[in-house]
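Structure request: Acyl-CoA dehydrogenase, Crenobacter intestini.
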Amino acid sequence: MKISFSPEDEAFREQAARWLAENLTGEFEKLRFRGGPGDEHSFIDERRAWEKRLAAGGWVGVGWATEDGGRGATISRQVIFAEEYARAGGPGRLGHIGEGLAGPTIAAFGTPDQKARYLPPILRGEALWCQGYSEPAAGSDLAAVATRARLGDDGRWRISGQKVWTSLAHLADWCFVLARTDPASSGHLGLGFFLVAMAQPGVTVRPIEQITGSSEFNEVFFDEAVAADLLGAPGDGWKIAMALLGFERGVSTLGQQMQFRGELDEIIRVAKDNGAAQDPDIRARIAEAQMGLTVMRYNALRMLGGDAEETRAALVYKLHWASWHRNLGKLAMDVLGEAAELCDTAPYGLTRLQSLFLFTRADTLYGGSNQIQRNLIAERGLGMPREAKGR
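Returned structure:
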């Protein structure tokens, strides 16, 4: 586990921090600390422009291999940029699914032609992606996907089915879709990994309004929508989908923790201002939150080490941060006291901490519920028998 950085790494940190300080000004000043959970609907046009500013500065694809157009930065420097971005108040990334998930997956499994076609628009901050995994009957059990892919007489695959909880689908240009290429298959067999343009007949997006008042998530309906490409071969879908989820546990977790740090700092500021910090119970809970965040950081650094023991340690990460963040939301409301019951502006203008509380209700459900995470720890990490399935 690496908990310190070399002088060269620290020079890179200074470079990143300086660029962010110089560029999060003017038209982008108002984007600081905006566009995160519960605030995803804010400043969409400005955040699109910010994606292109990042790209022009060479800060998109920092960890991508140089042959794929990235900087080829080490893990240490990827961690540094994620941390400095969050520390500077960099806005919620509209391009994070393309940069962090679609891009690395295409780089790993795509043909030279596919990489030449799809990677440059991501690196330029132009193409936005969304993820077509979850379905009404296939959430935590991803292998139950029912969306179908049919190979037409013209040699093109056509996608039919429904995806749900699709982040940023209403803004995305592209969607990577897990669909069943073999109608007689079940489970993880007979699946394909497709790249589908969103702006075409046969694709319908319906926003899902959350209790925060925003609509980051969507339902997506495919009705004979044409897939632009198949990544890998028919039947490779599960292998590619699992590899993509591995990319999701990358250095962005450190940036996520910097966001958590900012939320905790805001709670502490409010507690000092309104006197809640004088309550021994509140003080103890703030201390517990601080310790939990420290443990989270060291566990994330262990995950990035990559050996078998650290890979098993990665299984606890989602369970830990989701439960910790949910409790932070509760702490925020208790610190606010009576003010937590009042909207900042009419008709439903939530403060940052109110949005935090409401959004964290979902943390222990999406991306694998706490129950599913505990099963993964037991079965994959500890080698315990699989949970018996009810009839």
